[in-house]
TrEMBL record:
<dbReference type="Pfam" id="PF02687">
    <property type="entry name" value="FtsX"/>
</dbReference>
<keyword id="KW-0813">Transport</keyword>
<protein>
    <submittedName>
        <fullName>Lipoprotein-releasing system transmembrane protein LolC</fullName>
    </submittedName>
</protein>
<dbReference type="InterPro" id="IPR011925">
    <property type="entry name" value="LolCE_TM"/>
</dbReference>
<keyword id="KW-1003">Cell membrane</keyword>
<dbReference type="GO" id="GO:0098797">
    <property type="term" value="C:plasma membrane protein complex"/>
</dbReference>
<feature type="domain" description="ABC3 transporter permease C-terminal">
    <location>
        <begin position="288"/>
        <end position="421"/>
    </location>
</feature>
<feature type="transmembrane region" description="Helical">
    <location>
        <begin position="285"/>
        <end position="309"/>
    </location>
</feature>
<keyword id="KW-1133">Transmembrane helix</keyword>
<feature type="domain" description="MacB-like periplasmic core">
    <location>
        <begin position="42"/>
        <end position="253"/>
    </location>
</feature>
<keyword id="KW-0472">Membrane</keyword>
<dbReference type="Pfam" id="PF12704">
    <property type="entry name" value="MacB_PCD"/>
</dbReference>
<dbReference type="GO" id="GO:0042953">
    <property type="term" value="P:lipoprotein transport"/>
</dbReference>
<feature type="transmembrane region" description="Helical">
    <location>
        <begin position="36"/>
        <end position="62"/>
    </location>
</feature>
<feature type="transmembrane region" description="Helical">
    <location>
        <begin position="394"/>
        <end position="414"/>
    </location>
</feature>
<keyword id="KW-0812">Transmembrane</keyword>
<feature type="transmembrane region" description="Helical">
    <location>
        <begin position="329"/>
        <end position="351"/>
    </location>
</feature>
Length: 428
């Protein structure tokens, strides 16, 4: 209230006056006879802190998980896949040039794809082979910038292949070692189709950081892949990489028009719809479930404040007889309860932020202490635990916790304001 209003209403106290904050602070401090109430307040504080921190951490990990997967998937696979219809893709050079000229397209690359068995000293495994040109492979920074051993120089001219680090480890091979590639669709003879077996040296080993790709994908020169998979002069398809992966919708009709031939066009959202939809559903459900933790902690504030009001009935009556208004009493207990929620919320925010910044170090420490693997690459695809805090999402968690904490104090504070001083002092 303003000074003019205070002078005109001398019987009224200013909202959130210093004495209200002083009394609220005294009620928050523990006394010997109020130990049980202090325990409830402490548990409420701890519950809100852990609830907010858990919500921030889980949401950050799920955001990081989605971002990392999206980065890895779109770093290997094109944003838009163009495949031929009715006739083989024998004009892939001309079509690729047309697609590259579309506004919003970063680059396009033809490829030859086939599945085959790859055999090494350590194992015989199935792998997905992709024939690409060296100039196009250089544009896939997720591969070209993460070559652990060997080099991609002279990739087009040689007959070597590039494989993932996990695949190399399982096969038991390193740079310069030869692996045998076997496909059932080989040469046609009078006796029928015979398997094709050919040895290739390992010229490069890359590590993307996604176990599925590091353990199953191998790159070979484009011309060699055409010969090996019986696709001389042909390409399996053309992968188009857009400037903005989220804006592939408007590009699809432009790509179909620019191709000037019957093609089937699909974007990354269609090819991974089930996977990313499941992630989104899981994320939303986890948010609702973990919000209940904060809600339970807020309910603890109600119970603790209700007991505090009952215990402070005499103090409330004395305050009322000394001239304190109902509003002043209500504000005292609102400050008391809201302080628990506010301090607990910001403590949870700091704890959650600290854990998110060090999530991988914490995971490694726990794995070392328990001798277990908490984030298995075989199950979760990624080699490390990611965490990405979203500013808007984190702010909404903090705001939700503050609102719930404030709402939890209103009823006990209202009960305190409605307390009759005569009834409270009758038996004192």
């Amino acid at each position: 209230m303003t000074a003019e209003f205070q002078a005109a209403h001398p019987g009224r106290t200013r909202w959130f006056a210093p004495f209200e904050w002083m009394l609220a602070g005294r009620y928050l401090r523990s006394r010997r006879k109020e130990t049980f109430i202090s325990i409830i307040a402490g548990l409420s504080f701890l519950g809100i802190t852990l609830g907010v921190a858990t919500l921030i951490i889980v949401m950050a990990v799920m955001n990081g998980f989605r971002t990392e997967l999206l980065t890895k998937i779109l770093g290997i696979n094109g944003h838009v896949l163009v495949q031929p219809i009715d006739s083989p893709l024998n004009d892939f050079d001309e079509t690729t040039l047309k697609l590259t000229g579309i506004d919003g397209v970063d680059f396009a690359m033809p490829f030859v794809e086939g599945q085959a068995m790859i055999s090494g000293p350590g194992a015989d495994l199935g792998a997905l082979f992709r024939g690409v040109r060296k100039s196009d492979l250089d544009k896939l920074s997720l591969v070209s910038d993460n070559v652990l051993l060997g080099t991609l120089d002279g990739f087009d001219e040689g007959d070597g292949i590039a494989i993932g680090s996990r695949l190399a480890r399982q096969l038991g091979v390193s740079i310069g070692d030869s692996v045998r590639v076997i496909t059932p669709r080989g040469s046609i003879t009078p006796m029928g189709m015979t398997p094709r077996v050919k040895a290739y040296p390992v010229s490069a080993i890359f590590q993307i950081g996604m176990s599925e790709y590091d353990g199953t994908i191998a790159f070979m020169p484009f011309n060699e892949a055409q010969l090996y998979f019986n696709k001389e002069g042909l390409a399996t398809g053309i992968e188009v990489y857009a400037d903005d992966p989220d804006a592939v919708g408007p590009l699809r009709p432009l790509i179909e028009e620019a191709a000037e031939r019957p093609v089937f066009v699909s974007d990354w959202r269609q090819r991974n719809m089930t996977f990313f939809s499941a992630l989104e559903v899981e994320r939303n459900v986890m948010f609702l479930i973990l919000t209940l933790i904060v809600l339970v902690a807020a309910l603890n504030i109600i119970s603790g404040m209700t007991m505090l009001v009952k215990d402070k009935g005499r103090d409330i009556a004395v305050l009322r007889t000394m001239g304190a208004t109902r509003g002043a009493v209500m504000r005292i207990f609102i400050i008391t309860g809201a302080s628990i929620g506010t301090i607990g919320t910001f403590a949870g925010f700091l704890l959650g932020t600290l854990v998110c910044w060090n999530i991988e170090s914490i995971r490694q420490a726990i794995s070392w202490m328990t001798s277990t693997e908490l984030f298995s690459p075989e199950l979760y695809f990624l080699s490390k635990l990611p965490a990405e805090m979203d500013t808007g999402e984190t702010a909404s968690v903090v705001l939700m916790a503050l609102v719930l904490s404030l709402l939890a104090t209103i009823y006990p504070a209202w009960r305190a304001a409605r307390l009759d001083p005569v009834e409270a002092l009758r038996y004192e």
